[in-house]
Predict the structure.
Amino acid sequence: MARTMQAIVKPEAKPGIEVREVPVPVFGPDDVLVKVEAASVCGTDLHIYNWDQWAQGRIHPPLIPGHEFCGTVAAVGSEVTLTEIYLIGNTGALTHEQMQVLPGVQKVVRVSEAYRVLGRHKQGDDRPTSFEYQGVKFGQDTLNVFAGLCAVDSRESVDAMMKALQAHGQVCTRMGAYKPRTSAYSFQGRGKACLPYVFDLAGKYGIKVVAMEITHELHIDEIDGSCFVIRHGPYFPRRRRSPLTSFTTAR
């Protein structure tokens, strides 16, 4: 990877900009590094270039301006996670290009015959039919029951469910924080408000939350923001990662 790149720079508090060779940004564990393929100029950039009264009151040189750009991911940090979303139904009606241009989509893979492992469509097919994820094995010789609350109503109910699952040797659950309903007047779960104690209690009892329905893309951010929780008490005084492993979508 190159150590330097060309960039438009606002070096000091006066009209104009310069094109300079600058170091490639250092990205952290939660960041992605994007190689810019195209960029555009907006009104903010013109204010910065002209160094008018608006810019003088808000901009503090030196800096590299610009926020409207697109490109390809050149590198990812060690803590960056990938969310996989699977489509079912008549997916043949959607082209690869239609899915690839959607916001937030990094890669599109169309599941074909070559990926149909469990069906055993060919003699001598000895590929493994199981996989392990975050300490839980999924396969034909293991049974994981995703028992849980259809719609989360209280911390007490979640605690009772997690406790019962642990007592019966289960390690997975589903929790309906955002339960889609036919009627808008039906109870749909506590939403964002219940996420901290759902993940906290899951960690307390060693249960993996493997399914959580969402009804809006913003729910992904809310779930992600609740993946680190703090439990104040004699047994769990430390900060720990939530055991969330995956979730499903509902429209």
In short: The longest strand covers residues 32-39.
